[in-house]
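Take one record.
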Amino acid sequence: MRLDKLISESRLRKLAGERYFERGLKYFRGGTVARVRSSEDGIAARVIGTEPYVARIWLAGGALRWGCSCPLGVEGAFCKHLVATGLARRSGHAGDRKAIAEMKRVEALLDPLDRQRLTELIADRAMWDEPFYEELLLAARAIQDSSKQPAKQRKSTIKK
């Protein structure tokens, strides 16, 4: 299943609740969503409000997953930054050309590295960058959760 089918406006509203949905809508309309990177199964963006936060929505194991570096997002809540990011995706925001080009350059540099060297790079970055560490924990938790959940149960989660 594609990400676009799972992030309808009504689904974003349901996930966030009315209060955070309205705040996210205001952020989106205010142009606070920047540095968008998007693919068929995910979107990441920097959302600049009182502070800049990184919000990500993606598919993992057929289920919708999300994470944000804000205090609510770190706790697993679907925050206003995620709403703004989802609305950017729904509006057809394919991504910043500069951000996409930068990511392709980073991927080209990382591609030849072996697993051990990549693990060292990630662990070193996590040691000194608290928001990155928190995002890494969110991603690891999401992967762990999706691998523990039986396929039949994952499908029912998608329909909600």
Observations:
- The radius of gyration is 16 Å.
- The chain has one domain: 3-154.
- The CA atoms of residues 36 and 95 lie 4 Å apart.
